Amino acid sequence: MTTGLAEQPPLQLFKESGQREVFCGLTSIVWLHRRMPDAFFLVVGSRTCAHLVQSAAGVMIFAEPRFGTAILGERDLAGLADANDELDRLVKDLLERRPEIRTLFLVGSCPSEVIKLDLAKAAERLNTQLAGRVMVLNYSGSGIETTFTQGEDQALLAMVPLMPSSEVDQLLIVGTLADAVEDRLVQLFGRLGIPVVTSLPPRRSTELPPIGPGTRVLLAQPFLSATARALVSRGGQLLTAPYPFGVEGSRAWMAAGAAAFGVAPALVAEVLDPLVERGQRAIAPHRELLAGKRLFLLPDSQLELSLARFLQRECGMELVEVGTPYLDRQLLDAELALLPPGTRITEGQDVERQLERVRAERPDLVVCGLGLANPLEAEGIATKWSIELVFSPIHGCDQAGDLAELFARSLRRRAALSFS
């Protein structure tokens, strides 16, 4: 027996491996150091590492940011100097100059990993020397096998073992958010009757939230695989939902948190439906420009699947291809279920082959990293920097219009350009 409906093709999933074009995990320091003003991120790396973070942050050379680089020189790299002694000396000098630091992150890089500098042992040694003064943690921001958002995943993972145990019922939001956005989300969860809402990372690095069997974990970012698994191993219950980008994803995300605490659907609708209506009105003028336009997302930030869902379902864009550096099905199945049948999804990157497909398809807009944007713009293809989407406050129904505008702006800029 047949239903009379043509069977729709499933998602087309492909895996590629080759040359990549991404920033390394050191870039995540830029938003993490803003989140925790009592923390300091000390990169153990080269001058190139220092220039990368400095450029990404846009901080003047004479400013006093909450990050820095312990530069490995030629003698360190050649094994002619004791890098551990130099690191200890630099850390002590830093803490004398910056007494407000309460947590020090030692951040590994490609150079420190190449010379096998054990920053875990260095952190252990410094914690013994500086007990009661500062907490020293370490993680890898190396770009050898990671993309730039995984730096945050590794930083949060380093904090999980220090979180106190608790069986108190609470909702734990995981992933860095702008303070104003987080305040708004916490307020909304309060109106839904969830009294205890905590965050990782916290606004003060020494005030880590508790974790235990009563904790429901709601990820605000889709790139926190290692952190999510560590929180589950500590007893947390991981909630699955689309991520809070656009009105549809934001409503579903908040509804998942509410359902975990038994909140009545009627109350969820009372609190969230007015936000959805306002968000849809904010998206509408940008949808007029975006609807029908063809979109190609290259793998870079790991936000690609969530953005593709938002831009296709709420802005009417046509998906040519959706690339993602890594595909964690546990964290992204809810997003995959909302993509249209037949969507081509690629995991990993072979940059030359992907650029060949971009040139063959000639999409209206390409979401990609900074290294690829200018060459594509020179070929007459409009682009959107994926890293800007990590820095921008785009979570929640209230930001849905701003999120749509970021993509519409790229098309308006392209239309305004004239070429001789």
From TrEMBL:
Residues the record lists as binding [4Fe-4S] cluster: 24, 49, 110
Substrates-to-products reaction catalysed: chlorophyllide a + oxidized 2[4Fe-4S]-[ferredoxin] + 2 ADP + 2 phosphate = protochlorophyllide a + reduced 2[4Fe-4S]-[ferredoxin] + 2 ATP + 2 H2O
Enzyme class: oxidoreductase
Gene Ontology annotations of biological process type: light-independent chlorophyll biosynthetic process; photosynthesis, dark reaction
Family annotation (PANTHER family): LIGHT-INDEPENDENT PROTOCHLOROPHYLLIDE REDUCTASE SUBUNIT N
Assembly with partners or alone: Protochlorophyllide reductase is composed of three subunits; ChlL, ChlN and ChlB. Forms a heterotetramer of two ChlB and two ChlN subunits.
Protein's recorded name: Light-independent protochlorophyllide reductase subunit N
Annotated organism of origin: Cyanobium usitatum str. Tous
Gene expressing this chain: chlN
